[in-house]
Specification:
Two copies of one chain form a homodimer. By secondary structure, the first copy, chain A, is an alpha+beta fold. Chain A folds into two domains: 138 residues, Arc Repressor Mutant, subunit A, CATH 1.10.10; 34 residues, no CATH class. Chain A has eight helices and five strands. In chain A, strands 1-2 form a two-stranded antiparallel sheet. The longest helix of chain A has 14 residues. The radius of gyration of chain A is 20 Å and the shape is globular. The first copy, chain A, starts with 11 loop residues before the first helix and ends in an 11-residue tail after the last helix. Chains A and B meet through helix 1, helix 2, helix 3, helix 6 and strand 3 of A and helix 1, helix 2, helix 3, helix 6 and strand 3 of B. The first copy, chain A, binds a DNA duplex through helix 3 and helix 4.
DNA sequence: TTCGTTAGTTCTAAATTGGAACTAACTATA
DNA sequence: TATAGTTAGTTCCAATTTAGAACTAACGAA
């Protein structure tokens, strides 16, 4: 399977990665979250080639993650800003940062700290349950077949390949 | 800059992505979280080539994200299990899944739902502050220079390139 | 003896990437 | 008016990476 077909999988992680799973893309978004918005600034901060950056920005704009907005006319210049869709990737980026802080520390501690304005503390991020507010541990979460799979199955749109790719907890007529 | 030099950047996101930022790697980890542990099962579920999968698994084991443990002898067979380091990527994977659910829905709803055993609800994940428990919004978080950058700077180890790559909020002698 | 299972490795053509130079449309300065 | 500077790209080619398919190895079962 080619990477550009990955979004045909019946899986939200696969679909999400079809948009932001490229090597450089999440680093570009990291820059957006730290206030880097312009082409040359991104290119310098990332060390990506101009060609790659240009290509990735076009894709991110096309997929709705970034908006390209003019910040001056004559000469016309644009900057790249996170859309609402893009802003909601904050949990992904911050989780990655904190995971890197913890596990890939080179002994000097976190390069960047995050202060929560509301409480004033340097924070880590914690994944919490939207319903009860408790921390979400992998062992305390049970995945189950959702409407996305059920409806496709009912309409007979689950191909043989799709069915084979379902996770092992999926039982019964669907798998 | 080549991708295999990306972990030299003074940035935890870059370092994290040097380990899990490959196109297929987060999908492999998704499989691990849903209980897929064996080579052939992963290959089928992902649609990745056997060669790629083999290579990625070796890297993930080398970097400590997965453990390769025997599940039978004669013939000797191994399975791949998340280490503690790997399990702590759960926030990244679950956030990606929920982002995909919300923004890349094809109209049928989430393919997979997550039920929180503690409260019994189908949940979304929310990023919360480790100190006060409130939801962490990007606007309510102030990034600042952490010990990782300061110590490197004090030891004179911040090269010119490193300094140029620091985010715009970093001011003063460091940048 | 032959088939099936699991976990890979090898090979080649095709696609993607990095690096460096080049273009375009302006503005600022001498 | 000539020259340099800024910003945001595009073009080109060599080098690297990937997909797809076939092959290998070590064993167990019929």
């Amino acid at each position: 399977m080619r990477w550009n077909e990955i979004d045909t999988q019946v899986c939200s992680v696969a679909r999400a990665l079809s948009v932001v799973g490229d090597r450089w893309t999440l680093l570009i978004l990291r820059d957006c979250f730290t206030g880097v918005r312009r082409f040359d600034a991104m290119q310098k901060s990332l060390g990506i080639t101009r060609h790659r950056l240009s290509d990735r920005l076009v894709r991110l704009v096309d997929s709705g993650v970034l908006n390209k907005v003019p910040y001056q006319e004559r000469p016309l210049r644009h900057e790249y800003r996170l859309s609402e869709m893009g802003k909601e990737l904050y949990p992904v980026v911050l989780s990655l940062a904190h995971w890197g802080d913890k596990w890939l520390d080179d002994g000097d501690g976190a390069p960047i700290q995050h202060v929560h304005n509301n409480c004033g503390h340097v924070v880590r991020s914690v994944l919490a349950c939207s319903e009860c507010g408790e921390a979400l541990e992998p062992r305390a979460v049970t995945p189950q077949v959702g409407p996305g799979i059920m409806r496709k199955h009912e309409r007979g749109e689950m191909g043989e390949q799709d069915a084979e790719r379902l996770p092992p907890f999926v039982k019964g007529p669907v798998a």
